[in-house]
Amino acid sequence: MPAERGIAEAAAVLRAGGLVAFPTETVYGLGANALDARAAARIFEAKARPSFDPLITHLADAADLPALVGTLPPPVAALAERFWPGPLTLIVDRPAVIPPIVTSGLDTMAVRVPDEASARALIRSAGVPVAAPSANRFGQLSPTRAEHVVRGLGAAVDVVLDGGPTRCGIESTIVDARGPQAVVLRLGALPVEELIAAIGPVTVRPGSSGQPVAPGTLAAHYAPRTPLRVVGGVVPEPVGGVRRGFLAFRERPAAGYAAVEVLSPAGDLTEAAARLFDALHRLDAAGVTEILAELAPDEGIGRAINDRLGRAAATWSPPPPARAAGR
Ligand code: TXA
Ligand code: MG
């Protein structure tokens, strides 16, 4: 965990309009003062992020939300109460104090309270809401370690707080619960099953399920530099002369791959999610010409893993029938 002195200094950098990368329980965020349009603009610049892609605002405490946005729709309040701090991002009306650049001009705002003590201490010490996307260049792999941030963003960041590897390893689940039925806008670290248990049926927006509505509508995202292909069913035999990497869910493939990462030999989806981006970062650095990736069982956080693999893939192949997850 980052030292207290580090946090106080980083908070001062945030107040002065600087950029601070910090660990959350999901991935590292690239933070700026959400009340300061110029500071938020620096985030878009550092990430080479298109201005139409809105940021998530982070708060130190769930109790800070009504103070910022006023009375919440009851289902939104219920989800915040149930899952914060935690890997759930909620959609609320954008308050006037948040400059439109933070929400890319939308009159709604995405907001969450991270379940990471040092992140909340940073936000509390800064005394302002903190806008933070994942701390990677746009479209690339999300960072789950401080060194991923340094490698990806380097001098564009004023301070990087090192809290070690992140616990969940995959981004928050984004939910719009303002209407009659909650809509999952992005699958993430909070499994859909847990949402349903808390508030009843939810809609998963097409395109966030890992299965594109139509070929070509799937935005390339969360992608390594090396081409990645999702393989379903039978794992291809390695081809001689081609340096290929393999991302396995549970079992090692046949010998012959130049680099292999197994996400969870025990078949544990939570462990697999925590290791996903780190494994992809390593395969990306292994000097292979192609990465083949196997899907996880399509349940719980496995759905978010498969969503990210689908987006990382240059071409999509349909998922195989789900195998039972070992527990
Ligand atoms: O786990 C996470 O959510 C991490 C950590 C740092 O908190 N953050 C993260 O941020 O993944 P980012 O910027 O990589 O993804 C945020 C996504 C945007 O791409 C956008 O699709 C969605 O949140 N979003 C933001 N504001 C929104 C809004 N008002 N309505 C709908 N979607 C929104
Ligand atoms: Mg991101």
Cα separation of the termini: 29 Å
Percentage of residues in strands: 15-25%
Whole-number average pLDDT? 90
User: Biggest sheet: strands side by side, in what order?
Assistant: 7-1-2-6-3-5-4-8-9-10
Helix content: 25-40%
Low-confidence stretches: 210-218, 315-327
**What coarse outline follows from CA principal-axis ratios?**
globular
CATH domain topology of the largest domain = DHBP synthase
Tell me the name of the CATH homologous superfamily of the largest domain.
DHBP synthase
Bound ligand species: threonylcarbamoyladenylate, magnesium ion
CATH C-level class of the largest domain: Alpha Beta
Largest sheet: 10 strands, mixed
Number of helices: 9
| Strand/helix succession | HEEHEHHEEHEHEEEHEEEEHEH
Strand pairing plus helix content: what structural class?
alpha/beta
Q: How many whole angstroms does the radius of gyration measure?
A: 19 Å
Number of domains: 2
- CATH architecture call of the largest domain: Alpha-Beta Complex
User: Could you give the count of β-strands?
Assistant: 14
Please give a structural write-up:
The structure is a single chain. The protein has 327 residues and is an alpha/beta fold. The chain folds into two domains: 4-204, DHBP synthase, CATH 3.90.870; 228-315, Rossmann fold. Helices cover 28% and strands 17% of the residues. The chain has nine helices and 14 strands. The protein has a ten-stranded mixed β-sheet, sandwiched between helices. Strand 1 and strand 2 form a beta hairpin. Helix 1 crosses helix 5. It starts with a helix and ends in a 15-residue tail after the last helix. The model is unreliable at 210-218 and 315-327 (pLDDT under 50).
